[in-house]
Amino acid sequence: MTTVLDNIIARKRIEVAKAKSVTPLDTLRARVAERGRPRNFFAAVVNQRPRRNTRVIAEIKKRSPSAGTIRRDFDHIDIAKQYHEAGAAAISCLTDEQDFGGHLGYIHQIRDAVPLPVLRKDFIVDQYQVWESRAAGADAVLLIADVLEESELVDMAILARELNMTTLIEAHDVERLLKIRHYVGFPHAGYSLLGINNRDLKTMKTDISHTFRMLEFIEDRKVVVCESGISSAADLARLRQRGVNIVLVGEHLLRQPNPGDALRQLLGQGTDPDI
Q1: CATH number for the domain that contains residue 80
Q2: At residue 90, what are phi and psi to the nearest 5 degrees?
């Protein structure tokens, strides 16, 4: 049965082919050469984290296939500023236009507005998009294990490292996790994170307990990023108790009247509650 992800990937391959015809790879290489060094996304969420604090990668997106329109009064610059003021460690920016209401140009605009490193969150299916991401100002890229062959994932991780970008390598299930976990930290430690996405790709439902089950197969939890289904300080506390101190949160924050206040509330738990 064809899933939402299958449809997106089929469309994305067509989009990449069109992008290549409009902007050749050599043009992207020239743009990258003119850019300075990326901000250190990895350090922002791992190295600079106080022991008992959670680092939030706060996400910017207008809509999604599973949730529909998330925020009608969408202003990516204002949201980024709110996140920064509220204590976000980094920004995740959706750049897919058709299903998520994003745009590649948002990345540079966000970086101009706040000093935080920015992850390009999209469906990367070709090395061209890694170059495209850096040319657009991205400091990190998402690599989805369900989308890529192992050889493709390795090649893209190497390219991202050459461009001094962080990779967030994402798995949705144990089978994929077992295949890709040894690539986290490759080709050089300090440039890759392991994302556990709590969304079931068939039902599109989220369950934070999925992360707890996946952790049984992970030794180095300091680079784990819990994604999707997080909505409270209690969720962060449960994750910290299991050694997970990095989360990616978007929909919960964006549905609130003030995303910055929502982030403050999420981070406002001073001590772990009894749970």
Answers
A1: 3.20.20.70
A2: -160, 170
